[in-house]
Amino acid sequence: MDQERIGKWIALLRKEKKLTQEQLAERLGVSNRSVSRWENGRSMPDFSLLWDIAGELDVTVSELLNGKRMEKEANTEVLGSMNVLLAWSGREKQNKAKKLGGYFGTGLVCLLLALGQSQFGILSVLFSDGVDGLLTGIFAALGVILELAGFACNRQNALLTQKEIELLSKNAGGVKMRDAQEMLRFAQKYRAADKKNYRTAFAEVEKNLEEGESVVFSAAGEEYSKNEWQMMWHTVLAITGKRLLLSGERMKGILLPTYETESYLFSDISRIGRSGSRLVIQTSEGELKIQAGNQDVAEEIKKELRKAVGMD
Question: What's the pTM?
Answer without folding.
Answer: 0.52
